[in-house]
């Protein structure tokens, strides 16, 4: 099998010249402070198959490839993929993994941006896609009980049908899973008003690396019985346990919505406006921002392209009852009308709303018009410091002679910084990496954070020490160690470390 | 010193015949799975004094007594009390405690209801009251940076002065501290709309039992850099670390408020109304409930006492802009007007609002009109199950021939169940304890939780296994062990265990 994998990997390298292709690291010799990974021999594969059923465990090359990448675009081949259907099956697999010390990497839809679901140490990918039942929608208590493999938009539609609302709306909501969202603590445009995934996970069930099944949180709004394990699992990027059930908080569905496009000839004024809006008691459900580069690459999607000299665009939505929207709209118009540098219009119908959102959602793919590759970061700063952050990226862009576009969730200070490069140009790649590092350092100096919603995964782990002191990282690692003493669950993620390999 | 303490404790028993008085357990021999506590000899006291300054470390009996009890009303004498002023001082004390293995019990204002701040193993009480600076109110980003000893109402007033709002409002808000609120995850009437303390702690700084200083969370709305340590400390009842700084989320101050009194001749209709209101898009900022017994004991505080036959009372508040309140008021009136069993009125002025709140806030003290002691529980159930819970307490009351009153935060299912007893009557005490146990069992069967906002402390730890399975409790304990390997920080809380003692 080792030989096969090498041949296959080589063929992948030929097929995907732009991608980094990695063999399972169990076949390499990488030193580690933690543990020694074992490879999945046929005996283990047989046992996994016996747990989930033969048809739900695969080692076929074509299948392995499908579970070898995520939104980051790097390829790490797993040795096998299992598709459990029940918590008990997940538990049995983890008991096996504890016994034989093989790596297990839980995976939702693989839409993560930082490599969180990549099997970088080989081993087994545990695909949660078959555990996709909406178990219950408790209308009276505004709670949904779901399995982790439920697609986010499916949950949204199901609760909408009974007049309820599940706010988390990551860009990948048509594909990603609620379990994956919870593991990565996904955000989205609605976070400015509604918060992120962690704010909607009231409780959960998880399987520990040992195979033990634990529960966290409650089905009630309040609950302080012991430590808050819910939040420990949420955002832990699949390194502490495998989430097998979630209790999701729901809200009443907003009755109405209004969408506004705000164009500014001044970047400073646009970012200043964000603070002003929020401090005047206007609480938009969306307050998205794009810089002039982002505007340029999507402007052909707009029926009325922004005038020349437009430096920034804000996409703003209000939701609630029609009367409360009307009231906020009046206030908003008063705020916006005062300035010659700022123009705005309200979307008149659903088609216009769709057009604006299409433009916003197209930035990320359209960025490839500029360069074939991107370094995509999602730093967050206190929102009053957005102007400083954006000006810094402009300075970086000039000084390093590199294309950088910024857009994202201005309302909560979470700015997507896309550093556009051509990896074939080694010098440009180096300048891109330099820009990323300087961006992180500056973000921290602005009292910001390395990641607003994408997580650390493998792409930011080297920079963890910029934000967290040694004692804090040590504490996090000690929690990981006590929960996963053999480092078998999603090894090599979040914390800067290497993984040792070798069959036993 | 041992002899002195015994004499003092005996004198306390004479002075406070209704209270349980306990000597520091370091002077007893109690077996433990964990560690051996040392007592604070004069050498250690000298070192603590050197850290905080002589005037801020006391072993005077009168002082020790002041720090020997909390809202639960049991007395456990500490051996010394220290009043650190800085994070560094807290850190130095914890290093000393790690070295000499003495118990440290952090304490805010001692208003907790479940014994969380009681020095049940003796040792040092670390009173956080001198660390009471509001370090910063960041108006533009709606964040307050505070030290743990800030009184909750002082923070509320300070942010209100600049048009902002810190929602958590535990009943003790005039005395309790933000640090204590965070440690216990305090709730309050506003939780139905605004959530509880945990929802307003964005980040924090804490000192570990080892003396290491860690940071958790971010100053940004979003942040997923490593594990969510913020929530691990919040609600951990001072067992994992000592919180030394908090980043508090603020909201724009609501512009207006309206208060309603709803009286119902039917308990079922009143509790049903709670769900109906919340499902019709009305989001009250308060939705408090009291049963007929609670009404009876406070009715003399109301200028218009409820008519005979009133089975339940709801106190409901709306906040927001005046227009949004008007809109919700119309909806509320439509909902309420349909039923002959329900009457309501809106408070016409601030005096009437105060009167209604006085009545609500007086239930807890007024309960002592019924019996000299109470067993005060704060279970929470999914709000649709409140009728079942309340009916069960009525059944309990009849079957065990005991007075039980229920009131509390109906909007989030968090019901305060007060079991009224006279401890001098051994049989009644026994029936009271029986009622408490049956209440817990029934609450769990309704998918509820042992504690909505008071925490587990020492009063509910024996019942933890009713709600959490063995693997979950084991996991929590393993986190405690890895963070506090010598079990020196607030030992004996949350988890059912005993503490060994003995000088070294």
UniProtKB/TrEMBL annotation, chains A, B:
<dbReference type="InterPro" id="IPR016167">
    <property type="entry name" value="FAD-bd_PCMH_sub1"/>
</dbReference>
<dbReference type="InterPro" id="IPR006094">
    <property type="entry name" value="Oxid_FAD_bind_N"/>
</dbReference>
<dbReference type="InterPro" id="IPR036318">
    <property type="entry name" value="FAD-bd_PCMH-like_sf"/>
</dbReference>
<keyword id="KW-0560">Oxidoreductase</keyword>
<comment type="similarity">
    <text>Belongs to the FAD-binding oxidoreductase/transferase type 4 family.</text>
</comment>
<dbReference type="InterPro" id="IPR016166">
    <property type="entry name" value="FAD-bd_PCMH"/>
</dbReference>
<dbReference type="InterPro" id="IPR016171">
    <property type="entry name" value="Vanillyl_alc_oxidase_C-sub2"/>
</dbReference>
<dbReference type="GO" id="GO:0016491">
    <property type="term" value="F:oxidoreductase activity"/>
</dbReference>
<keyword id="KW-0285">Flavoprotein</keyword>
<protein>
    <submittedName>
        <fullName>Probable glycolate oxidase subunit (GlcD)</fullName>
    </submittedName>
</protein>
<keyword id="KW-0274">FAD</keyword>
<dbReference type="InterPro" id="IPR016169">
    <property type="entry name" value="FAD-bd_PCMH_sub2"/>
</dbReference>
<feature type="domain" description="FAD-binding PCMH-type">
    <location>
        <begin position="74"/>
        <end position="253"/>
    </location>
</feature>
<dbReference type="InterPro" id="IPR051914">
    <property type="entry name" value="FAD-linked_OxidoTrans_Type4"/>
</dbReference>
<dbReference type="InterPro" id="IPR004113">
    <property type="entry name" value="FAD-bd_oxidored_4_C"/>
</dbReference>
<dbReference type="Pfam" id="PF01565">
    <property type="entry name" value="FAD_binding_4"/>
</dbReference>
<dbReference type="GO" id="GO:0071949">
    <property type="term" value="F:FAD binding"/>
</dbReference>
<dbReference type="Pfam" id="PF02913">
    <property type="entry name" value="FAD-oxidase_C"/>
</dbReference>
<dbReference type="InterPro" id="IPR016164">
    <property type="entry name" value="FAD-linked_Oxase-like_C"/>
</dbReference>
């Amino acid at each position: 099998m080792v030989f096969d994998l090498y041949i296959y990997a080589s063929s992948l390298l030929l097929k995907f010249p732009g991608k980094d292709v990695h063999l399972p690291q169990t076949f390499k010799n990488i030193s580690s402070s933690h543990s020694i990974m074992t490879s999945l021999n046929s005996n283990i594969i047989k046992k996994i198959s016996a747990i989930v059923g033969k048809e739900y465990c695969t080692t076929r090359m074509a299948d392995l490839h499908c579970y070898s990448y995520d939104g980051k675009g790097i390829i790490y081949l797993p040795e096998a993929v299992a598709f459990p259907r029940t918590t008990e099956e997940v538990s049995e697999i983890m008991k096996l993994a504890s016994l034989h010390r093989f790596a297990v990497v839980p995976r939702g839809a693989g839409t993560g941006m930082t490599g969180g679901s990549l099997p970088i140490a080989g081993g087994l990918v545990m695909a949660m896609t078959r555990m996709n039942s909406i178990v219950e929608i408790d209308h009276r208590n505004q709670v949904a009980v779901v399995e982790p493999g439920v697609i986010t938009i499916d949950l949204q539609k199901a609760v909408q049908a009974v007049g309820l609302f599940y706010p988390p709306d990551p860009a990948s909501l048509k594909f990603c899973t609620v379990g994956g969202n919870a593991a990565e603590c996904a955000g989205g445009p609605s976070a400015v008003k509604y918060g992120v995934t962690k704010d909607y996970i009231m409780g959960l069930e998880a399987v520990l690396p040992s195979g033990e099944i634990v529960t966290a949180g409650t089905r009630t709004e309040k609950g302080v019985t012991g430590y808050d394990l819910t939040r420990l699992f949420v955002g832990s990027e699949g390194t502490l346990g495998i989430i097998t059930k979630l209790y999701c908080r729901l809200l009443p569905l907003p009755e109405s919505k209004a969408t506004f496009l705000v164009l500014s000839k001044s970047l400073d004024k646009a970012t200043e406006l964000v603070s002003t809006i929020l401090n005047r008691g206007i609480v938009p459900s969306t307050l998205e921002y794009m810089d002039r580069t982002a505007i340029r690459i999507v402007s052909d999607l707009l029926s009325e392209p922004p005038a020349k000299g437009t430096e920034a665009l804000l996409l703003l939505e209000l939701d609630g009852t029609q009367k409360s929207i009307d009231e906020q709209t009046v206030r908003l118009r008063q705020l916006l009308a005062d300035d010659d540098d700022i123009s705005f219009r309200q979307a008149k119908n659903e088609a216009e709303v769709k057009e604006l959102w299409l433009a916003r959602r197209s930035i990320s793919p359209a960025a490839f018009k500029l360069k074939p590759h991107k370094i995509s970061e999602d730093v967050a700063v206190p929102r009053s410091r957005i102007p400083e952050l954006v000006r810094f990226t402009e300075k970086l862009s000039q000084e390093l002679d590199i294309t950088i576009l910024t857009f994202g969730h201005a309302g909560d200070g979470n700015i997507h910084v896309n550093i556009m490069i051509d990896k074939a140009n080694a010098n440009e790649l180096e300048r891109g990496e330099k820009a990323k590092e300087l961006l992180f350092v500056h973000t921290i100096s602005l009292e910001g954070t390395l990641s607003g919603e994408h997580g650390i995964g493998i792409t930011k782990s080297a920079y963890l020490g910029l934000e967290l002191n040694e004692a804090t990282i040590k504490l996090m690692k000690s929690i990981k160690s006590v929960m996963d003493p053999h480092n078998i669950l999603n090894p090599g993620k979040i914390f800067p470390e290497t993984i040792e390999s070798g069959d036993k």
